[in-house]
Amino acid sequence: MADSVSVHVAYCDKAGALRAVHESEFDTQRLPTEGLLRGYHYSFVRNVVRNASSGFLSRINPGLLLCVAKYDIVFLHGMGVLSYWISFFGSLFWRKTILMKGEATPELYEGIPRLRAKVRIWLYRQVLKRCRCVFYSCEGNRAFWKLHGVPDTKLRPLPCAVDNSYFQTQAHSLRQKRLELRRAYDIAETDTVFVMACRMTNRKRPHDLVDAAIVLHNEGMSNFTLLFIGDGPERAKLEHRCAQEGIKANFTGFMPESRISEGYIQADVGVVISEYDPSPKAMNEMMNFEMPVICSNVVGTVLDLVKPGQNGFAIPVGDISSIVESMKYFIVDAAKRAEMGRRSKEIVDQFTFTRQAECIRTALDSFSNQSANN
Protein backbone atom coordinates (compact mmCIF):
# COMPACT_ATOMS: atom_id res chain seq x y z
CA MET A 1 0.00 0.00 0.00
CA ALA A 2 2.66 2.55 1.07
CA ASP A 3 4.38 2.38 -2.34
CA SER A 4 1.27 3.77 -4.01
CA VAL A 5 0.56 6.57 -1.53
CA SER A 6 -0.07 10.04 -2.92
CA VAL A 7 0.50 12.83 -0.39
CA HIS A 8 -1.20 16.22 -0.48
CA VAL A 9 -0.52 18.92 2.11
CA ALA A 10 -3.28 21.43 2.84
CA TYR A 11 -1.87 24.63 4.31
CA CYS A 12 -4.17 26.68 6.51
CA ASP A 13 -2.31 29.94 5.91
CA LYS A 14 0.33 31.41 3.59
CA ALA A 15 2.37 32.75 6.51
CA GLY A 16 5.87 31.35 6.45
CA ALA A 17 5.37 29.76 3.04
CA LEU A 18 4.50 32.62 0.68
CA ARG A 19 4.53 35.68 2.92
CA ALA A 20 6.71 36.98 5.71
CA VAL A 21 5.62 36.70 9.33
CA HIS A 22 6.23 39.37 11.95
CA GLU A 23 7.67 37.74 15.06
CA SER A 24 6.65 40.15 17.83
CA GLU A 25 8.93 38.58 20.47
CA PHE A 26 11.91 38.80 18.11
CA ASP A 27 10.73 42.17 16.70
CA THR A 28 11.65 40.97 13.21
CA GLN A 29 10.15 39.84 9.93
CA ARG A 30 10.65 36.12 9.33
CA LEU A 31 10.90 35.60 5.60
CA PRO A 32 9.26 32.65 3.80
CA THR A 33 11.24 29.43 4.19
CA GLU A 34 13.20 28.76 1.02
CA GLY A 35 12.32 25.46 -0.65
CA LEU A 36 9.39 24.73 1.67
CA LEU A 37 6.98 24.11 -1.22
CA ARG A 38 9.21 21.99 -3.43
CA GLY A 39 8.86 18.30 -4.16
CA TYR A 40 5.27 17.50 -3.19
CA HIS A 41 1.63 18.36 -3.90
CA TYR A 42 0.05 21.11 -1.82
CA SER A 43 -2.69 23.70 -1.75
CA PHE A 44 -3.65 26.68 0.38
CA VAL A 45 -7.10 26.56 1.94
CA ARG A 46 -8.52 30.04 2.51
CA ASN A 47 -8.16 31.26 6.06
CA VAL A 48 -10.96 33.69 6.98
CA VAL A 49 -8.77 35.20 9.71
CA ARG A 50 -6.26 37.78 8.54
CA ASN A 51 -2.87 38.51 10.11
CA ALA A 52 -3.35 36.29 13.16
CA SER A 53 -0.12 34.44 13.87
CA SER A 54 -1.08 32.36 16.90
CA GLY A 55 -3.98 31.27 19.07
CA PHE A 56 -6.87 28.83 18.71
CA LEU A 57 -8.79 31.17 16.39
CA SER A 58 -5.80 32.10 14.21
CA ARG A 59 -6.73 29.44 11.63
CA ILE A 60 -10.36 29.15 10.53
CA ASN A 61 -10.56 27.32 7.19
CA PRO A 62 -14.14 26.18 6.42
CA GLY A 63 -12.94 24.79 3.06
CA LEU A 64 -11.28 21.93 4.90
CA LEU A 65 -14.69 20.28 5.27
CA LEU A 66 -14.68 19.60 1.52
CA CYS A 67 -10.92 19.21 1.22
CA VAL A 68 -10.78 16.12 3.45
CA ALA A 69 -13.50 14.44 1.37
CA LYS A 70 -11.01 13.94 -1.48
CA TYR A 71 -8.63 11.68 0.43
CA ASP A 72 -8.60 8.32 2.17
CA ILE A 73 -6.45 9.30 5.15
CA VAL A 74 -6.35 12.61 7.03
CA PHE A 75 -3.22 13.33 9.07
CA LEU A 76 -3.81 15.95 11.79
CA HIS A 77 -0.96 17.76 13.52
CA GLY A 78 -2.63 18.32 16.88
CA MET A 79 -5.84 20.09 17.89
CA GLY A 80 -4.43 23.50 18.73
CA VAL A 81 -6.38 25.59 16.21
CA LEU A 82 -10.02 25.57 15.14
CA SER A 83 -9.17 24.37 11.63
CA TYR A 84 -7.87 21.05 12.99
CA TRP A 85 -11.27 20.50 14.60
CA ILE A 86 -12.95 21.36 11.30
CA SER A 87 -10.78 18.73 9.62
CA PHE A 88 -11.52 16.22 12.36
CA PHE A 89 -15.30 16.56 12.16
CA GLY A 90 -15.13 16.62 8.36
CA SER A 91 -13.17 13.36 8.46
CA LEU A 92 -15.80 11.79 10.71
CA PHE A 93 -18.57 12.92 8.37
CA TRP A 94 -16.83 11.53 5.28
CA ARG A 95 -15.71 8.41 7.20
CA LYS A 96 -12.02 8.92 6.60
CA THR A 97 -9.13 7.25 8.42
CA ILE A 98 -7.67 9.76 10.90
CA LEU A 99 -4.04 9.86 12.00
CA MET A 100 -2.87 12.16 14.78
CA LYS A 101 0.53 13.49 15.77
CA GLY A 102 1.60 15.89 18.47
CA GLU A 103 4.48 17.14 20.58
CA ALA A 104 2.89 18.15 23.91
CA THR A 105 3.99 16.62 27.22
CA PRO A 106 2.05 16.16 30.49
CA GLU A 107 3.61 19.38 31.85
CA LEU A 108 1.22 21.24 29.54
CA TYR A 109 -1.44 20.93 32.24
CA GLU A 110 0.68 22.40 35.02
CA GLY A 111 -0.73 25.75 36.06
CA ILE A 112 -4.06 25.14 34.29
CA PRO A 113 -7.13 25.14 36.58
CA ARG A 114 -7.95 21.56 37.54
CA LEU A 115 -11.50 21.56 36.15
CA ARG A 116 -10.35 23.03 32.83
CA ALA A 117 -7.61 20.40 32.57
CA LYS A 118 -10.10 17.59 33.28
CA VAL A 119 -12.50 18.85 30.61
CA ARG A 120 -9.70 19.16 28.09
CA ILE A 121 -8.40 15.67 28.81
CA TRP A 122 -11.91 14.22 28.48
CA LEU A 123 -12.46 16.04 25.20
CA TYR A 124 -9.14 14.87 23.74
CA ARG A 125 -9.94 11.30 24.80
CA GLN A 126 -13.08 11.41 22.66
CA VAL A 127 -11.05 12.63 19.68
CA LEU A 128 -8.24 10.12 20.11
CA LYS A 129 -10.66 7.19 20.36
CA ARG A 130 -11.62 7.94 16.77
CA CYS A 131 -8.06 8.04 15.43
CA ARG A 132 -6.65 4.98 13.66
CA CYS A 133 -3.21 5.62 15.12
CA VAL A 134 -1.46 8.29 17.18
CA PHE A 135 2.16 9.21 16.52
CA TYR A 136 4.44 10.36 19.33
CA SER A 137 7.50 12.52 18.69
CA CYS A 138 9.40 11.65 21.87
CA GLU A 139 9.00 9.82 25.17
CA GLY A 140 7.53 12.94 26.78
CA ASN A 141 4.89 13.12 24.06
CA ARG A 142 4.19 9.40 24.45
CA ALA A 143 3.46 10.00 28.15
CA PHE A 144 1.06 12.79 27.11
CA TRP A 145 -0.92 10.46 24.85
CA LYS A 146 -0.98 7.76 27.54
CA LEU A 147 -2.44 10.34 29.93
CA HIS A 148 -5.32 10.64 27.44
CA GLY A 149 -5.96 6.91 27.39
CA VAL A 150 -4.34 6.02 24.07
CA PRO A 151 -3.49 2.28 24.15
CA ASP A 152 -0.04 1.02 23.14
CA THR A 153 -1.60 -0.71 20.12
CA LYS A 154 -2.44 2.71 18.65
CA LEU A 155 0.83 4.45 19.48
CA ARG A 156 3.60 4.69 16.87
CA PRO A 157 6.87 6.63 16.90
CA LEU A 158 7.50 9.64 14.70
CA PRO A 159 10.79 10.94 16.13
CA CYS A 160 11.46 14.65 16.53
CA ALA A 161 13.89 15.68 13.78
CA VAL A 162 15.51 18.57 11.97
CA ASP A 163 17.34 18.63 8.64
CA ASN A 164 20.48 16.87 9.87
CA SER A 165 22.07 16.87 6.44
CA TYR A 166 21.79 20.65 6.16
CA PHE A 167 23.19 21.38 9.62
CA GLN A 168 26.02 18.86 9.35
CA THR A 169 27.00 20.33 5.99
CA GLN A 170 26.98 23.78 7.59
CA ALA A 171 29.10 22.52 10.49
CA HIS A 172 31.67 21.07 8.10
CA SER A 173 31.86 24.16 5.87
CA LEU A 174 32.08 26.64 8.77
CA ARG A 175 34.60 24.73 10.88
CA GLN A 176 37.52 26.65 9.36
CA LYS A 177 35.82 29.95 10.19
CA ARG A 178 35.18 29.12 13.86
CA LEU A 179 38.03 31.24 15.26
CA GLU A 180 37.33 34.08 12.84
CA LEU A 181 33.69 34.19 13.92
CA ARG A 182 34.71 34.05 17.58
CA ARG A 183 37.02 37.01 17.12
CA ALA A 184 34.18 38.95 15.51
CA TYR A 185 32.17 38.38 18.71
CA ASP A 186 35.23 39.07 20.92
CA ILE A 187 35.22 35.51 22.26
CA ALA A 188 38.57 34.15 23.43
CA GLU A 189 39.87 31.09 21.60
CA THR A 190 40.28 29.22 24.89
CA ASP A 191 36.86 30.05 26.35
CA THR A 192 34.21 27.36 26.67
CA VAL A 193 31.09 28.77 25.03
CA PHE A 194 27.63 27.81 26.31
CA VAL A 195 24.86 28.57 23.84
CA MET A 196 21.11 29.04 24.29
CA ALA A 197 19.03 29.43 21.11
CA CYS A 198 15.48 30.37 21.99
CA ARG A 199 12.83 32.99 22.51
CA MET A 200 14.01 34.82 25.59
CA THR A 201 11.00 34.27 27.80
CA ASN A 202 10.78 33.10 31.39
CA ARG A 203 9.51 29.70 30.22
CA LYS A 204 12.92 29.07 28.62
CA ARG A 205 14.63 30.06 31.91
CA PRO A 206 17.63 31.94 30.45
CA HIS A 207 18.13 33.67 33.82
CA ASP A 208 19.04 30.28 35.32
CA LEU A 209 22.07 30.14 33.02
CA VAL A 210 23.08 33.66 34.08
CA ASP A 211 22.59 32.71 37.75
CA ALA A 212 24.92 29.73 37.29
CA ALA A 213 27.46 31.89 35.45
CA ILE A 214 27.47 34.37 38.34
CA VAL A 215 28.23 31.54 40.79
CA LEU A 216 31.15 30.39 38.64
CA HIS A 217 32.41 33.95 38.24
CA ASN A 218 32.28 34.53 42.01
CA GLU A 219 34.29 31.32 42.48
CA GLY A 220 37.02 32.78 40.27
CA MET A 221 36.23 30.85 37.08
CA SER A 222 36.21 33.18 34.08
CA ASN A 223 37.29 31.10 31.06
CA PHE A 224 33.80 30.78 29.61
CA THR A 225 31.33 32.84 27.59
CA LEU A 226 27.54 32.74 27.29
CA LEU A 227 26.08 33.00 23.80
CA PHE A 228 22.38 33.86 23.49
CA ILE A 229 20.85 33.42 20.04
CA GLY A 230 17.40 34.91 19.76
CA ASP A 231 15.37 37.74 21.19
CA GLY A 232 12.42 38.29 23.45
CA PRO A 233 11.06 40.23 26.42
CA GLU A 234 13.82 39.09 28.81
CA ARG A 235 16.75 40.07 26.60
CA ALA A 236 17.29 43.57 28.03
CA LYS A 237 17.24 42.23 31.62
CA LEU A 238 19.70 39.48 30.71
CA GLU A 239 22.09 41.92 29.05
CA HIS A 240 21.91 44.24 32.05
CA ARG A 241 22.58 41.46 34.55
CA CYS A 242 25.55 40.10 32.61
CA ALA A 243 27.08 43.57 32.28
CA GLN A 244 26.46 44.37 35.94
CA GLU A 245 27.99 41.09 37.19
CA GLY A 246 30.94 41.07 34.76
CA ILE A 247 29.76 37.95 32.92
CA LYS A 248 31.13 37.55 29.40
CA ALA A 249 28.05 37.19 27.21
CA ASN A 250 27.04 37.84 23.61
CA PHE A 251 23.52 38.47 22.36
CA THR A 252 23.11 37.95 18.62
CA GLY A 253 19.43 38.82 18.32
CA PHE A 254 17.21 36.80 16.02
CA MET A 255 19.17 34.72 13.51
CA PRO A 256 17.34 33.09 10.55
CA GLU A 257 18.10 29.49 9.61
CA SER A 258 20.48 30.72 6.91
CA ARG A 259 22.72 32.30 9.58
CA ILE A 260 22.11 30.44 12.82
CA SER A 261 24.89 27.97 12.00
CA GLU A 262 27.38 30.82 12.35
CA GLY A 263 26.31 31.01 15.99
CA TYR A 264 26.38 27.29 16.64
CA ILE A 265 29.87 26.82 15.18
CA GLN A 266 31.30 29.15 17.85
CA ALA A 267 29.80 27.16 20.73
CA ASP A 268 31.02 24.16 22.72
CA VAL A 269 27.98 23.19 24.82
CA GLY A 270 24.24 23.50 24.13
CA VAL A 271 21.88 24.55 26.92
CA VAL A 272 18.12 23.79 26.95
CA ILE A 273 16.82 24.30 30.48
CA SER A 274 13.17 25.24 29.88
CA GLU A 275 10.40 24.57 32.38
CA TYR A 276 8.17 23.43 29.50
CA ASP A 277 9.51 22.49 26.08
CA PRO A 278 7.98 19.45 24.33
CA SER A 279 10.52 19.03 21.51
CA PRO A 280 12.97 21.91 21.18
CA LYS A 281 14.44 21.62 17.69
CA ALA A 282 17.36 23.80 18.80
CA MET A 283 18.71 20.83 20.78
CA ASN A 284 18.74 18.63 17.67
CA GLU A 285 20.47 21.43 15.78
CA MET A 286 23.15 21.85 18.45
CA MET A 287 23.84 18.12 18.51
CA ASN A 288 24.50 18.20 14.76
CA PHE A 289 27.38 20.53 15.62
CA GLU A 290 28.83 17.90 17.97
CA MET A 291 27.85 19.68 21.15
CA PRO A 292 27.14 17.96 24.44
CA VAL A 293 24.02 19.37 26.12
CA ILE A 294 22.76 20.52 29.49
CA CYS A 295 19.02 19.85 29.49
CA SER A 296 16.23 20.15 32.05
CA ASN A 297 14.55 16.88 32.93
CA VAL A 298 11.07 18.00 31.81
CA VAL A 299 12.03 18.69 28.20
CA GLY A 300 10.02 16.25 26.09
CA THR A 301 13.00 14.86 24.17
CA VAL A 302 15.38 14.58 27.13
CA LEU A 303 14.96 10.79 27.43
CA ASP A 304 15.44 10.36 23.68
CA LEU A 305 18.40 12.66 23.03
CA VAL A 306 20.28 13.04 26.32
CA LYS A 307 22.17 10.07 27.72
CA PRO A 308 23.54 11.28 31.06
CA GLY A 309 27.30 10.98 31.22
CA GLN A 310 27.48 10.05 27.54
CA ASN A 311 26.52 13.24 25.73
CA GLY A 312 25.33 15.59 28.45
CA PHE A 313 23.42 16.01 31.68
CA ALA A 314 19.71 16.11 32.57
CA ILE A 315 19.15 18.50 35.47
CA PRO A 316 16.06 19.36 37.55
CA VAL A 317 14.28 22.51 36.40
CA GLY A 318 15.63 25.57 38.15
CA ASP A 319 18.41 23.69 39.94
CA ILE A 320 21.20 26.26 39.69
CA SER A 321 23.73 24.09 41.53
CA SER A 322 23.28 21.29 38.97
CA ILE A 323 23.79 23.77 36.12
CA VAL A 324 26.93 25.06 37.85
CA GLU A 325 28.37 21.56 38.27
CA SER A 326 27.58 20.64 34.66
CA MET A 327 29.24 23.82 33.38
CA LYS A 328 32.33 23.18 35.52
CA TYR A 329 32.60 19.67 34.11
CA PHE A 330 32.67 20.94 30.53
CA ILE A 331 34.98 23.88 31.27
CA VAL A 332 37.58 21.77 33.06
CA ASP A 333 37.69 18.72 30.75
CA ALA A 334 37.93 19.75 27.09
CA ALA A 335 38.77 16.21 25.94
CA LYS A 336 35.71 14.72 27.62
CA ARG A 337 33.61 17.58 26.26
CA ALA A 338 34.71 16.76 22.71
CA GLU A 339 34.08 13.03 23.24
CA MET A 340 30.57 13.72 24.52
CA GLY A 341 29.98 16.05 21.58
CA ARG A 342 30.79 13.27 19.14
CA ARG A 343 28.36 11.04 21.01
CA SER A 344 25.68 13.73 20.57
CA LYS A 345 26.10 13.54 16.82
CA GLU A 346 25.86 9.73 16.89
CA ILE A 347 22.57 9.98 18.80
CA VAL A 348 20.99 12.71 16.66
CA ASP A 349 21.94 10.78 13.52
CA GLN A 350 19.09 8.42 14.43
CA PHE A 351 16.53 11.27 14.41
CA THR A 352 16.02 12.14 10.76
CA PHE A 353 13.33 13.04 8.24
CA THR A 354 14.08 9.72 6.52
CA ARG A 355 13.25 7.83 9.70
CA GLN A 356 10.04 9.84 10.05
CA ALA A 357 9.00 8.81 6.54
CA GLU A 358 9.81 5.18 7.33
CA CYS A 359 7.63 5.34 10.47
CA ILE A 360 4.68 6.67 8.48
CA ARG A 361 5.25 4.07 5.77
CA THR A 362 5.29 1.30 8.38
CA ALA A 363 1.98 2.53 9.81
CA LEU A 364 0.35 2.66 6.38
CA ASP A 365 1.61 -0.83 5.54
CA SER A 366 0.12 -2.16 8.78
CA PHE A 367 -3.28 -0.68 7.87
CA SER A 368 -3.07 -2.40 4.48
CA ASN A 369 -2.17 -5.74 6.06
CA GLN A 370 -4.99 -5.46 8.61
CA SER A 371 -7.50 -4.72 5.83
CA ALA A 372 -6.26 -7.69 3.82
CA ASN A 373 -6.70 -10.00 6.80
CA ASN A 374 -10.22 -8.85 7.60
Q: Write down the domain tally.
A: 2
Strand order of the largest sheet: 11-10-9-12-13-14
Q: Using the coordinates shown, work out and report the CATH topology of the largest domain.
A: Rossmann fold
Beta-strand content: 15-25%
Terminal CA distance: 16 Å
Beta strands, count: 14
User: What CATH architecture of the largest domain would you give?
Assistant: 3-Layer(aba) Sandwich
Sequence of secondary-structure elements:
EEEEHEHEHEHEHHEHEHEHEHEHEHHH
**Overall 3D shape:** globular
Low-confidence stretches: none
- Report the major sheet: 6 strands, parallel
Mean pLDDT: 94
CATH C-level label of the largest domain: Alpha Beta
Count of runs of 4 or more consecutive helical residues: 14
Q: What descriptive keywords fit this protein?
A:
single chain, 374 residues, alpha/beta, Rossmann fold, 2 domains, six-stranded parallel sheet, four-stranded parallel sheet, 14 helices, 41% helix
Structural description of this entry:
This protein has 374 residues and is of the alpha/beta class. The chain has helices at residues 64-67, 82-93, 114-129, 139-147, 164-174, 178-184, 206-218, 235-245, 257-264, 281-288, 302-305, 320-332, 334-348, 353-373; strands at 8-11, 21-23, 28-30, 41-44, 73-76, 97-102, 133-136, 155-157, 192-197, 224-229, 249-253, 269-272, 293-296, 312-315. It folds into two domains: 2-161 and 352-373, Rossmann fold; 164-348, Rossmann fold. Strand 13, helix 11 (302-305) and strand 14 (312-315) form a beta-alpha-beta unit. Helix 7 (206-218) runs parallel beside helix 8 (235-245). The radius of gyration is 22 Å and the shape is globular.
